[in-house]
Amino acid sequence: MKQEHEHEVVIIGGGPSGASAAAILAEHGHDVLVLERDQFPRYRIGESLLPFTYEPLKRLGLIETMRESAFVKKYSVQFISPSGRASQPFYFFNRYDRDTVAQTWQILRSEFDVMMENNATSKGAHVVHGVEVKELIQEDGRVAGVRAVGPDGEAREYRARMVLDCSGKESFAARQNRWRRKDPELNKVAVWTYYRGAKRDEGIDAGATTVAMIREKGWFWYIPQHNDMVSVGVVAEGKYLSRDGVKDPKAIFEREVKQNPWIDEHLAAGQQVGPHHITSEYSFHAEHCGQEGLLLVGDAFCFLDPVFSSGLMLAIKSGVMAADEVHRGLVENDLSPDRFAEYARLLREGIENMRKLVYAFYAPNFSFKQVIEKHPDLAGDITDCLSGDVNKDFSKLWEAIKEFASVPEELPYGAPKAPAAVGA
Ligand SMILES: Cc1cc2nc3c(=O)[nH]c(=O)nc-3n(C[C@H](O)[C@H](O)[C@H](O)COP(=O)(O)OP(=O)(O)OC[C@H]3O[C@@H](n4cnc5c(N)ncnc54)[C@H](O)[C@@H]3O)c2cc1C
Description:
FAD/NAD(P)-binding domain, D-Amino Acid Oxidase, Chain A, domain 2, nine-stranded mixed sheet, 31% helix, 26% strand, binds flavin-adenine dinucleotide
């Protein structure tokens, strides 16, 4: 096995979480190596940003780049009933500053992820593509690096003081350590594809995310992108989508399009492009955020149902937070697991708040409108959480939602694994 020289930090995966962490660590002056399995640009799902991605993007120095990009500007979200009736769009500028948080973007991941990577390399991070991490190097209860295979097929060891797992929902380290825990209820299937030339709404509504409901608490996303493309997908229980024995993603998708007149009408003007994708049973939580020498970031730590587009915000924010804490640990020469307890607490707090709204969304006969009609003073809380301002005390909101739907217990996950217990 070929031995590479030791790095301060090795990052598994160069998606948004890995590139964010790499950029911040490099900015702090650390020696950081990103091992990315795929060649970029590459396809990825996850194309709608939340308003509160603004702060971490600003920290990364990417706001101007985003403003100059071709990415479609997103000012609002709207909901469509199963009968095709559109709600009043919710405009972020009704609550947030117009020059910052109130406008976000619909992105194309092949372009966005290259932009994120270029930002990390411009600050001094080293990124290699075509290298797949196969194993964590575990020594005396701590992670001391990774074993990986490069494009030449040769196995290599990359040693590091700290390994960040940013491998996405494949969650490399959580799988290896058997830390993956399914969400008790969120267990949906998504089927999606793309259309060119599909109908867009006018003016500032042209970039709106539309969530269009179908029966059985299923829903479509409709995300306008640049180059006249629209990303459109349906999410629901697997047993609903595969009813009548239909398994082919294209057949499922085309059947479900007929379930919502708004979606049907908007797609009718366009041309379907490329394959129909499918993914299933994807929500999970990692029992621990890490152990000595290892920290989980982004989807590798937790993947929630995508209904409120929280994944990229959490991935980018956690990349920045992880990098800042690892930096402090490197400077103070203390990377003990305990120092990441607060990182995990903050992340879990945000995830649990978002998760409560996701559960409410799927509860039978629930609507946020009902809650707001009865408790108008809580409209701002709902907006904040849905916009990604998730680290707040929403206890009044949960009490109000309990009048209409059950609110899930918080899951006891996320604390770093204590050194003595490793391998126990
Ligand atoms: C159907 C669906 C719809 C979604 N819609 C949205 C949305 O609208 N808005 C939103 O914000 N989020 C959405 N998401 C979530 C979003 O895709 C993720 O939250 C986001 O991609 C997480 O970024 P990440 O960097 O953590 O992981 P990823 O983007 O998955 O990046 C991980 C990287 O790690 C690499 N990698 C994996 N394993 C290895 C290995 N062993 N060795 C080396 N490299 C490796 C991969 O190649 C990849 O490049 C959606 C997800 C799904 C499934």
